[in-house]
Amino acid sequence: MTDKCFVGVDLGGTNIKAGCITADAEILSKISVPTEGERGQEHVIGRICGAVDSVLEGAGRPRDLVGGVGIGFPGTLDIKAGVVRYPANIPGCRNIPVVQRVRERTGFPVLLENDANAAAYAEYWVGAARDAGSMVMLTLGTGVGGGIVIDGKVLHGNTDCAGELGHMIIEVNGRKCGCGKWGCLEAYASATSLVKRFAEAVQAGHLTVLADHFKTGGKVSARDIYEAAIGGDEVSCRLFRETGSYLGMGIVNIMHTLNPARIVLSGGMIAAGDLLMRPIREMVEARALSDAQRNCEVIFAALGEDAGLLGAAGCALAEFGTSR
Ligand SMILES: [Zn+2]
Q1: How far does the centroid of ligand 1 lie from the alpha carbon of residue 169, in Å?
Q2: 47-75 pLDDT, tens per residue?
């Protein structure tokens, strides 16, 4: 195992998180600073480099013991070129040569990875899919993200958009998705869609304990719907059952396409626990080919919020580390 450390950067819409991480995934130091994407790409690159310097200082690691920097970036990427074609969080910017710029300013080897792929890699490396060989992760938050690791390698596909699992179509002529198309998994299984479907149920006159709060202009979150469901609210229970069934359908498609050893669910929605997992398991049992579901575990993620920076560092280790 190399004695070098690796810096992982997780570039979110709100915050840039960075960590200095050893080859056995110990986080020596970490930091979170506002992204300030509205101030443009030069500013964001400056903040990434500043965060890298800060975590190295925090960890007390000399620069010659740094093996590389991994950056998890949301948006449309050209990974081989190290370019972010359409960043998801820097308005108006195109074709940012992130790898070249951060390498010039820090002097370290730099790797670019899609942020959801990086988080999936972390669960493969040291999380819920450790030792699984191949795994797929679905992140259920305001949208639905995905990442695929096959035989230890992140699957990028021909144009770096493999793993866009939130946009697999699960309903012909289905609900409108954030991507502009229809019937995508994201339009059924994200927290945003849960809240939207809840609002539609109330407007359609379905009785729910949250109706008064909602009708008087109160905001209803996915968590409120979860708590109502735990309390026995029928509409909320039905919405979670539906969400789980659609997710189960997506998971069956993943099993049949990739035959992974583990499918990991992460993101805010997994707080719903069994409410979500039960209908998923029912759908998988009913609809997946027996060979595809055999030895394939569907489980919740283990790493939480640090997955992005851990995975970015892990990808840098895999690329630039001498050995594991
Ligand atoms: Zn979509």
Answers
A1: 8
A2: 999 999 999 999 998 999 999 999 999 99
Q: Is the pLDDT of residue 323 over 60?
A: no
Using CA atoms, how far residue 261 sits from 118, 158, 162, 185, in Å, is 18, 23, 18, 21
For residue 219, count CB atoms less than 10 angstroms from its CB and return exposed for 0-12, middle for 13-18, buried for 19 or more.
exposed
Of 223, 248, 228, the C-alpha closest to 238 is: 228
Rounded to an integer, what distance in angstroms lies between the CA atom of residue 243 and that of residue 265? Answer: 13
* For helices 274-287 and 234-258, angle between their N-to-C axes, nearest 10 degrees: 50
112 Cα to the center of ligand 1, angstroms = 24
What's the gap in Å between 208 CA and the centre of ligand 1?
A: 29
Provide CB contacts within 8 A for 16, sequence distance 6+.
9, 10, 32, 33, 34, 35, 44, 47, 48, 51
The number of residues making up the chain comes to 324
Gap from CA of 136 to ligand 1 centroid (Å)? 18
pTM exceeding the 0.85 threshold for the entire prediction: yes
Residue 137 Rama label (left phi>0; alpha psi -120 to 50; beta): beta
Residue 12: CB partners within 8 Å, gap ≥ 6?
35, 74, 89, 115, 308
Distances (CA, A) of 284 to 1, 191, 288, 299: 39, 21, 5, 13
Please tell me the distance between residue 86's alpha carbon and the centre of ligand 1 in angstroms. 17
Residue 175 and residue 276: Cα distance in Å, rounded? 20
Tokens representing 185?
Answer: 């998994």
Return the axis-axis angle of helices 234-258 and 222-230, rounded to nearest 10°: 110
| Gap from CA of 179 to ligand 1 centroid (Å) | 4
Pull the structure tokens for residue 224: 């409120």
Phi-psi region of 247 (alpha: psi -120 to 50; beta: other; left: phi over 0): alpha
